[in-house]
Structures
1.
Amino acid sequence: MRMWMVNPKGMCRRHLLGEHLETHMFMGCLNKGKKLDGYLSNNLFEPRSLVSRHDELASEMIRRGYNHKSPISLDDGIVLSEQKINPIISQMDLLSRCAACKKRWEEKCG
């Protein structure tokens, strides 16, 4: 699981839908009180941006004509850390891993 925190317009279908699913997985972990220390220490998770990131991904899914019917919500009383993901490093990592994202990024964001 990870949050890329890059512009969703530049993500291929697989990574867009994958990160969307992972926001739900992170939310489930938080709501169940599970520890996510490994994701935090490896800069793969940005807790305070979880709901807004989900909504950003969902908006892009809808813009592309995909079906989205899975809102998320955070249980009351959960304290979130202020961990931040460096979007430049994350973008470089994503584009080096995925030729489809690299092509889409050049077309839509470059």
Note: Helices lie at 13-31, 37-41, 50-63, 87-97, 99-108.
2.
Amino acid sequence: MLNNFHVLKVTGVAATDTEPYKVKLFSERFRHSVLLHYTNELPYSFDVAEKYLTDNGHEVIGKAEGKECYYIISNTFKPLKQ
């Protein structure tokens, strides 16, 4: 029997003349996203997204690399925004 997981896609949003680099976290299950501010404190987009999830009560149990993105695997089934 296979387990069911919540898959979240992590991508970078390029900086513009007026906006800094951001990290986009997209919930495949709930079909919505949040934009996260990148800081030098956390060196990779995945780290920024993982911190956001764990700070907001999501349990991160795995990750995977995609083409120009990461996937975070969680067994917490709740929206990114409350």
Note: The first helix runs from residue 45 to 55.
3.
Amino acid sequence: MICQHCTKQLQPDWKFCPKCGNAVDEQKEPARSYGSSVRAQVFEVIVRQGLAGAPWRYICAGPMKVNNISEEEIQAEIDRRRSL
């Protein structure tokens, strides 16, 4: 699969493009709903907070709850990006 935004070659299990940061799942569906786009953006912000060393579990608890994002999802993406 290739990122529709930056043309980077993507692995099937990636949730985000490591080059431009756009959500891979959203690239599979040409018509996106407002909610899925917002969730992807919130997810990205929280992951970046985690990568920066911020206490994301505490400061992002509200947005995570509203957007149905689990701590496990965030931690898995943080771990994946750190291993790149």
Note: The chain has a mean pLDDT of 84.
